[in-house]
Amino acid sequence: MGVMRISHINIRVLDMEASLKHYVNVIGMKVVHTDAAGSVYLKCWDEWDKYSVVLTEADVAGIINVGYKVENNADLDEFKQRITDYGTAVEDIAEGALPFVGRALKFSIPSGHVMYLYADKEYVGTDVGTINPEPWPDGLVGAGVHWLDHALLMSEFDIDKGINRVEDNTKFMIDVLDFYLVEQILVGPEGDQQLATWLSVSNTPHDIAFVGGPINGLHHLAFFMDSWDDVLKAADVMGKNKVKIDVTPQRHGVTRGYTIYFFDPSGNRNETFGGLGYLAQRDRPVTTWTEDQIGSGIFYHTGVLNEAFTTVYT
Amino acid sequence: MNVVRDENQSFVVTIEDTGESFSCQSRQHVLSAMSRMGKKGIPSGCHGGGCGVCKIQINDGAYETKKMSRAHISATEEASGCVLACRVFPRSDLSLCVIGKLQKNILKKTDKPL
Ligand code: FES
Ligand SMILES: [Fe+2]
Predict the structure, then answer these.
(1) Tens of pLDDT along A162-195?
(2) In terms of Cα–Cα distance, which of A145, A98, A139, A109 is closest to A270?
(3) What average pLDDT does this structure show over A215-227?
(4) A53 close to A8: Cβ distance less than 8 angstroms
């Protein structure tokens, strides 16, 4: 029973052609479907479900919704009850309303970000298959990322007005969806305000994260890579393709991940996240970063939080 | 007769607020030219027309634009030369002033300064 992992993210892009060049040639995904409205569905080589990223052309950038996959259809009934009991409106979505996806639940987490849960998505297999597979397929393009790893959602945060959607979201994810807290940044006069949280529902250091900002939005979507070498090569690919890099290869103090922050052609931040960091466990003690060490938490080597981190997002 | 267009035509961009100027090729957006030449003045963010921090007002000169987020630039603003520097490609020398700023760090609102 329960949520397994992030299964899709649907984002807005300003220019579909430029975006496809980015997600195909730089990230290394494949286009698997285009729907009647023109949204394009893409898949990474190591994913077995039909798609993980959906691009929708619009006149603004940012996130439309995010979907998490649960283990069984019966889980949806249980989650529907829990979400309702929490006082949150939840909608039943018929099979196929999300392409290639079974019945789903649609609701908003406390910040207002729209989330789906579903158990079934069309299985197509990874590019190496399941019988005596090669470690990686031939013909990988660009960074050749493995899979969509997590999303970081900017959530409204205004201490003076007593608004902290990071905290509200975190409580919701834990109480209702059985995520567990892995790391957090605490700030404020009493050092008790969650400015940022990283939550897991599996054994990766985070399956979702929240950071406080002036308005809700998308901070980044992240793709998994094996190693530091892969992250370096991904940065080379970005240099070649004149991709706007926000932060060059570096280690996150939080989650210990190897990271690059960069932007897609509509300004949506992407991340290539390498290494497992550590094996997250439900009983692993929560790691806390204090307000005076935020810089090291985010960018471990420089210890400097660049201005863009909490101000530049879509 | 074939008209050969010079892809590498270079123009001078002047930031009125600071008096700083730099050259920008016609195929290059203003923000990229500024950053690649190590100049400062316009806040630099996503370089994709999505985040809005590089908002400028162009007071003089000709340019072309690419699509920019309506969350940050309305159609009226766009028509009056209020645009995102990362979506502006010069077609003549440009003179502009800076509107966008990196919003204050969220933490400065707390009582305990960093
Ligand atoms: S830098 Fe983000 S809109 Fe120009
Ligand atoms: Fe991340």
Answers:
(1) 999 999 999 999 999 999 999 999 999 999 999 9
(2) A145
(3) 96
(4) yes
Domains A3-118 and A147-311 share a fold: yes
Domain extent listing, chain A: 3-118, 147-311
pLDDT digits (tens, 9 = 90+) for A54-88: 999 999 999 999 999 999 999 999 999 999 999 99
Residues 198-237 of A with CB under 8 A from B: 212-214
Residues of chain B with a CB closer than 8 angstroms to some CB in chain A: 44-51, 53, 66-71, 102-103, 105-107, 109-112, 114
Give the whole-number percent of chain A exceeding pLDDT 90. Answer: 95
CATH 3.10.180.10 correct for A147-311: yes
Buried b (16+ CB within 10 A) or exposed e, A250-263: bbbbbbebbbbbbb
CATH number of A3-118: 3.10.180.10
- Residue B17 maps to a domain: yes
User: pTM above 0.90?
Assistant: yes
Please report residues of B whose CB lies closer than 8 A to that of A214.
Answer: 103, 106
Q: Determine the distance separating the centroid of ligand 2 and the alpha carbon of A95, expressed in angstroms.
A: 31
Between the CA of residue B72 and those of A103, A286, B50, what are the distances in Å?
Answer: 36, 38, 8
Residue B4: per-residue pLDDT: 54
CA of A240 to the centre of ligand 1 (A): 21
Ligand 1 pocket residue status of B52, Cβ below 6 Å: yes
